[in-house]
Write a structure and sequence with these properties.
This protein is of the alpha/beta class. 29% of the residues lie in helices and 25% in strands.
Length: 325
């Protein structure tokens, strides 16, 4: 299996995440461009069952059923991926830029002594390896970076590609968990719990996001109202997160989440490049802003010039009326 391209996946609620399906599609595309073989790798509780769904996206799937117990999930995954990589010698690993994915990639770097390219917004095959497109300086510049050597890890941001099912589903190979030396335990000194939406912001088909134009924490009430009426979730810009108006879990942009909903409603958001890079691939972008010259108008599909505190409640009421309550 030397020379293969592996997509390292994650499991949530018994299913591969959307980012995992995107990585499978990306690995298949890179393999086709390079003449190599692609595989998806799922490690964790219920990996074999989740592999059935992931195999529809083309590459064969290696499934390792492992229960992390009370240990960090990323540690259990990294140990097994490292053991598999040493045994089967793939050349490149694609890892999602999720919270667990970044932890897995960091551990794999140390255990395999491989280099890594981080936060790739796009990946294509160039020459003898993957080339990653990354934005720097707050999104003002785009760089093209190539891994040196025959092995490496590429950490890929969500929505870098669109997940697509393959004409021919991949096969599933169930692999027994390797006997590994457990990584040193991490001592947890504190836990902070935060309420979150039922649907994660990366997976949400509809997002209503607020910026500095909402005026303060109380201003998010109209944003939340519309999100609830539409069946979506609430997003935010870095400025309002830094101000403490809403939690980091809602932050979209260069230093937050990358999203790709079918509908993105931007309320009181100017549309600075740092925010744009996190949501510009949304299906339909509707902007609501009092400033007709706000930068977001340059890439929004619909720009509504007006006061969001007048417009959002009316839209919420109209949506509820149309749905019969």
């Amino acid at each position: 299996m030397a020379g293969e391209i592996w997509a390292v996946g994650e499991i949530a609620d018994g299913q591969p995440t959307r980012l995992t399906r995107e990585l499978a599609t990306l690995a298949a595309g890179l393999a086709a461009a390079s003449g190599r073989t692609a595989r998806s790798v799922l490690v964790g509780a219920g990996a074999s069952a989740a592999a059935e769904s992931l195999a529809a996206h083309g590459p064969d799937v290696l499934a390792v059923d492992v229960d992390a117990g009370d240990r960090p999930v990323a540690a259990a995954i990294a140990e097994q991926i490292a053991a598999l990589a040493r045994d089967r010698q793939p050349s490149f690993l694609l890892v999602g830029a999720s919270n667990d994915g970044r932890d897995v990639a960091g551990m794999l770097q140390a255990m395999l002594d491989w280099g890594a390219l981080v936060n790739a917004a796009g990946v294509r095959w160039q020459g003898d390896g993957p080339q990653a497109e990354m934005s720097v300086f707050g999104g003002r510049l785009v760089t093209q970076s190539h891994l040196a050597g025959d092995h490496g890890i590429v950490i890929v941001r969500p929505s870098a590609v669109a997940a697509e099912e393959a004409a021919q589903p991949g096969a599933i190979e169930r692999v027994g968990a390797a006997a590994v030396e457990p990584l040193p335990a991490v001592r947890v000194v504190d836990r902070i719990s935060e309420a979150s939406a039922v649907v994660s912001i990366e997976e949400a088909p509809i997002i209503v996001a607020g910026g500095r134009g909402v005026g303060g924490p109380d201003g998010f009430a109209v944003v939340e109202e519309l999100a609830e009426a539409l069946g979506g979730v609430v997003g935010a810009t870095r400025a309002v997160v830094d101000a403490g108006w809403i939690g980091y879990a809602h932050q979209i942009g260069q230093t937050g989440k990358t999203v790709k909903p079918s509908l993105y409603v931007a309320a009181g958001i100017s549309g600075a490049i740092q925010h744009k890079v996190g949501m510009q691939t949304s299906g339909t972008i509707v902007a609501i802003n009092r400033d007709p010259d706000a930068p977001i108008g340059e890439f929004a599909d619909l720009m509504v010039v007006g006061d969001l505190f007048e417009i959002l409640p009316r839209v919420s009421a109209a949506v509820r009326a149309r749905r019969g309550g």
